[in-house]
Design goal:
The complex is a heterodimer of chains A (339) and B (283).
Chain A lengths: L1 E6 L3 H7 L5 E8 L2 E6 L18 H4 L3 E8 L2 E2 L9 E6 L1 H15 L5 H8 L1 E7 L10 H4 L10 E5 L3 E6 L2 H9 L10 H15 L11 H7 L5 H8 L5 H5 L6 E7 L5 E8 L9 E2 L3 E2 L4 H13 L15 H5 L6 H10 L2
Chain B lengths: L13 E10 L4 E8 L2 H6 L7 E6 L3 E6 L10 E6 L3 H8 L5 E8 L5 H4 L3 E7 L3 H13 L7 E7 L8 H7 L6 E6 L10 E2 L17 E6 L2 H14 L6 E4 L15 E2 L2 E2 H4 L2 E3 H6 L5
Parallel strand pairs in B: 7-8, 7-11, 8-9, 9-10, 11-12
Antiparallel strand pairs in B: 1-2, 1-6, 2-5, 3-4, 3-6, 12-15, 13-14
The chains are: A alpha+beta (339), B alpha/beta (283).
Chain lengths: 339, 283
């Protein structure tokens, strides 16, 4: 991989150079919350350890959008225009989340809505010498580092950035302002990178024993834990909304007042909701809330076929989002400690 | 599968016309449809066991098993029970009405594996929808299969889907057609009055080890039929069934048909009994 370095003070200049590619986005502060939003100024960006409320998926797989409009039996075929965007400051776990969604939306029959947004978005990742937060589990999930799924990746090493060029588009971005990049990575820089990574590895506050958990989950299918969790769960769906690897959506038709016209739109769905597996005739394949939680945690901590591995990317958002403290950490703990 | 134009949107339905419709029972209707685009109608490829998404603008989409056979190209046939929003809207449509369809989706029956074997087709109620496709396919390619049995159970003669078609098939020498009803309020039923599992007593001269069974019916039927099939010695990976789930996309993206860690629309809807034992929650 092509690796360059940049002086810390030059990022601002490079950021504005990327306007030539498209809109500038990144983690910004909105009230008390950090979100991925449009950054008018470089100073809007929060380039420091921390987590956005929603993962980057909201920009590629939006929470709600119109798929197409129809007029009687005629469907509009043109896809919505998606402006080109650069998102600077995407965390490694969020990039892993995107890589997982790519498996669903880009393999087999590619989803044109996802594909278009993915193609029109330049992803610039960033990592720091500290974990993002106290509830990060990325180290346990192997998602604290990332080697694909981005166009450029900045390792913030306090006095300078190492810049990993991950795609042809990433190389194009570098060419927008080549003067701010250097390719002479000396021994000191390399040592700083290694030292920083080793230091960070010691700072993670949470972990899950993923060596044994998938098997424990397999063996706990009939455990009473699921019903106990089901009794506690409020079925609010927050866990799935904040999860970078949750892909599920529902599709409904909306009718306009003028006859025969309307639109078909898509919005995030949630497998914890009772209606999720309900079919016509009122048969529900997962009637019990415990069964639905078991399904979700099975995907996140044991395996999910299309991903071929556990879906959790260890971002820790469910740890903060769940109002009744059901999350990957508490569920893993309950399963590992139950006899 | 149909070669779509580059950059075409797989979520956009294609137009099809309702050619013919009639009731198969008090709440199940037969729909014969054809793509408006004749080239598409004649070149469409599918397998017994696959399904399609029907689209009624303003109401939505729902998945339906294909009841016709690819060995008779041109028309697509479905039998649909009026039970939800989309089906109610479909029931209001008349001949020549245009609907949207997309597909086919899912993995169908593994015909290459089944060929050369004896085949038992075991139907309960609406299970006739996907299994009629397999039955007609086997009849149209009769030399490719060994002994062929249809075991079809319904509540009453009135409830038996494709009753006349199957009664006529009893005349055939190349099919053992066993039809049963639980009860006969009409008093005119000439076939069996029995449970579908009782029909196994009439299954003779099959090479058990080299027999495939295809089962589809209401959930209660599976338990008894599967037990019977295992007891008579049919290998579990040769017992096939097609399963129902909620589906919104058909392409492994929306998530609704998930069972365990797989999507029914991608890995199914045809599963073997071994799959069922292996993947908890399938039936």
């Amino acid at each position: 991989m092509r690796v360059l370095w940049m002086e810390k003070g030059k990022l601002k200049e490079f950021f504005y150079s990327m306007k030539a590619f498209g809109e500038l986005w990144g983690p910004i502060q909105k009230g008390k919350t950090r979100i991925y939003g449009k950054a008018e100024n470089f100073s809007d960006l929060k380039l420091e350890p921390g987590r956005t409320a929603l993962p980057i998926k909201k920009l590629i797989h939006p929470s709600k959008f119109t798929m197409f409009k129809y007029d009687k039996q005629e469907y509009s075929t043109k896809l919505e225009n998606i402006p080109r965007r650069v998102i600077l400051g995407v965390s490694p776990c969020d990039i892993h989340g995107l890589l997982k969604l790519d498996e669903i939306f880009l393999e087999e029959e590619p989803d044109p809505y996802y594909e278009k947004r993915r193609d029109n978005t330049a992803i610039i990742g960033i990592s720091y010498c500290k974990p993002c937060c106290d509830s990060c589990i990325c180290q346990s999930m192997g998602t604290d580092v990332v080697d694909e799924g981005y166009d450029l990746f900045f390792s913030d090493l306090e006095d300078f950035y190492l810049v990993w060029v991950g795609s042809s588009l990433g190389d194009d971005l570098v060419r927008l302002n080549p003067a701010v990049f250097h390719d002479d990575i000396d021994r000191t820089k390399l040592e700083k990178f290694v030292e920083c990574k080793k230091e960070r590895d010691k700072l993670f506050a949470c972990s899950i024993d993923m060596d044994v958990l998938p098997d424990i989950m397999e063996l706990s299918y009939d455990s009473p834990i699921w019903d106990e969790l089901g009794d506690k769960c409020l079925e609010c769906g927050a866990c799935t909304m904040v999860c970078p690897s949750c892909n599920c959506y529902n599709v409904i038709d909306e009718v306009y007042l003028s006859e025969g016209k309307g639109k078909r739109f898509r919005y995030w769905d949630c497998c914890i909701f009772k209606e999720y597996s309900l079919v016509a005739g009122d048969h529900n394949f997962r009637e019990n809330r415990g069964e639905r939680l078991r399904l979700w945690y099975g995907h996140k901590l044991n395996s999910f076929g299309p991903y071929g591995r556990p879906a959790c990317v260890g971002c820790g958002r469910c740890v903060d989002a769940c109002p009744v403290d059901i999350n990957v950490l508490t569920v893993a703990r309950a399963l590992l400690e139950s006899k | 599968m149909h070669e779509k134009e580059e950059n075409s949107n797989p979520y956009l339905p294609e137009h099809a016309r309702i050619v013919r419709k009639y009731n198969l029972s008090s709440d199940v209707r037969f729909f014969q449809i054809r793509y408006v685009d004749m080239d598409r109608a004649l070149t469409m490829k599918y397998l017994p066991g696959q399904f399609m998404m029907f689209s009624v603008p303003g109401v939505g989409e729902a998945p339906f098993s294909i009841s016709s056979t690819p060995s008779r190209p041109g028309l697509l046939e479905f039998c649909i029970r009026e039970v939800g929003d989309v089906t109610s809207a479909l029931f209001k449509l008349k001949e020549n009405a245009i609907i949207g369809i997309r597909g086919p989706y899912g993995d169908g029956f593994p015909l290459d594996d089944i060929q050369g074997h004896d085949l038992l087709i075991i139907v309960g109620g609406l299970g006739a929808a996907p299994l009629r496709s397999l039955l007609l396919y086997a009849l149209d390619n009769r030399d490719d299969f060994g002994k062929l049995y249809l075991l079809h159970g319904a509540r009453t003669p009135e409830d038996m889907l494709f009753r006349e078609e199957f009664l006529e098939m009893m005349e055939r020498d190349d099919l053992n057609c066993l039809l049963a009803v639980d009860e006969d309020p009409t008093g005119k039923w000439k076939c069996h009055i029995a449970r579908v599992t009782d029909l196994f007593d009439h299954v003779k001269d099959i090479d058990i080890e080299n027999t495939y069974a295809a089962v589809c019916g209401p959930p209660v039927m599976y338990k008894f039929v599967l037990e019977k099939l295992v007891n008579i010695g049919i290998p579990k990976n040769q017992i096939l069934m097609t399963l129902e789930r909620r589906m919104k996309c058909g392409m492994g993206k929306c998530g609704h048909c998930v069972v365990g860690d797989i999507y029914t629309c991608m890995e199914g809807p045809v599963f073997s009994y071994w799959d069922v034992l292996n993947m908890k929650g399938l039936i």
